[in-house]
Amino acid sequence: MDLLKLKSGSDIRGNAVETPGQPVELTDEIVGRIAGAFAGWLKRRGGGAKIAVGHDSRISADRIGGEVKRALIYAGCTVCDCGLCSTPSMFMMTQYPETQCGGSIMITASHHPFNKNGLKFFTRAGGLESADISELLSLAAVYAPQEKPGGKIVSDNYMRLYSERISDMVRAAAGSDMPLKGFKIAVDAGNGAGGFYSDILMSLGADTSCSQFLQPDGRFPNHVPNPEDAAAMRSISRRVLETGADLGVIFDTDVDRAAIVDASGEEINRNRLIALISAILLAEQPGAAIVTDSVTSDGLRDFIMAKGGKHIRFKRGYKNVINEAVRLNALGVNTPLAIETSGHAAMKENFFLDDGAYLVTRIIIKMALLKKEGRDISDLLYGLKMPQEAAEARIKFTSENWQGLGKQIIGDLTGYSAAHYRTAPDNAEGIRANIDTYDGWFLVRMSVHDPVMPVNIESNVSGGAKAIAKELVNFLSSYSGLDISGLEKLCK
Fold it and tell me: Each residue of 467-488: pLDDT tens digit?
């Protein structure tokens, strides 16, 4: 079996519902093999006797979850059945004194279409690495289950443990049992697993009656559950303005990513979200380092430096960013935050777990404290310079040798940029170059998973993004094996 095709970075993903032209890849047999292989993999490391299993709202969750639990029982494991839950809560199942699971499996495909699903894996040390997934899939290809079940299932309201931890954190920080009384907060779960967060806020005194799309629905009928999606952000922004809420909160399907909207309807995601949480943490830990992905803006870099922090750009991919922050801390560099523009945010104080609810909770705590001073969270963004223009495009490869072609193009563009532009000194991947003529920059890199080259452009000159796109089109037009139509659209 060629199971490696299901690998997606440090996760496993594939088609889980048959649709035209897309047969099911995560079949019962394959799911069972992967779950059983994980149990054996974990047992060899001393932690496979007790494994938690949970899922988001996808329509294939029950089928896949049932097969995962069946396989684990046949592998002799005690299974903690968590039902509908968030991805961060599944890691916490390995940390709670009440549960002490050796590992956990979360069934989710994040914000991907309804027919997709996948598996995320945790041990007590954190999420599995890319190399671990490769090993796991190789083991699954030859896995032979036991003939008789030797394990059992234990069910409970395990999300209660996660919710109580968040609630206790807010109460302790604010010094009050009902610290959010008087606040009106709109939660948008995107019909994913995040509806529980509205209940947390209500228990802390907030009015969450203005929330929307809390009901789990794996077909995601209202909008894509993705804080990076423009339509999703417009939806929560409208809701805040319509209801007069003090804050809007939006999660992705499995709640490991988030973004917010302030009382004026202003979207705080991507660079603005990074700036906000950085301002909060740098006020507490002066001089700390903040690790971000490679596509962050120069304005964010200047903002973090003005706050006394160090900004470190690193390779795109949430595990890459997290691992770099962990490495820096091991070297003695205080690095409390690893965060991607996608909304993945992991804090040192929280096991370096990318947790959208924890991120938002940290911001809400600050909001409650600022209110006592007659201020709001938007005040913390003062001094953040946003580019006049920003654009993104994806260049698709049509060549089978796309990896080799991509490497060649990046190398050629790097040489060209050194001669014609200013190569960015803190480039983390691909080629990032500053173009002074348009007071801007571009970044061309290889995708973490797919046969594409994402392009990011920013400029502080009217028409500058379009002009930079044209220069890139002129450079790339001589290469065969590329579809640059996405970039050409930026030139119009």
Answer: 999 999 999 999 999 999 999 9
**pLDDT tens digits for 282-294?**
999 999 999 999 9
3-class SS letters over 23-73? CCCCCHHHHHHHHHHHHHHHHCCCCCCEEEEEECCCCCHHHHHHHHHHHHH
Note whether 435 and 472 are within 8 A (CB).
no
The 3-state DSSP class for residue 81 equals strand
User: Rounded CA gap, 278 and 112, in Å?
Assistant: 28
Catalytic, out of 57, 60, 89, 110: 110
pTM (two decimals): 0.96
Give the rounded distance of the alpha carbon of 63 from its chain centre: 25
Q: d(Cα 434, Cα 70) in Å, to the nearest integer?
A: 55
Neighbours of 29 (CB within 10 A): 11
Query: What percent of the chain has pLDDT above 70?
Result: 100
User: Which of 273, 262, 275 minimizes the C-alpha distance to 376?
Assistant: 262
Determine the Cα–Cα distance for residues 189 and 220; give it in Å rounded to an integer: 10
Structure tokens at 311: 């900004």
Please tell me the distance from the alpha carbon of residue 40 to that of residue 136, in angstroms, as a whole number: 9
Known catalytic membership, residue 447: no
DSSP conformation letters of 239-303: HHHHHT-SEEEEE-TTSSBEEEEETT--EE-HHHHHHHHHHHHHHHSTT-EEEEETT--HHHHHH
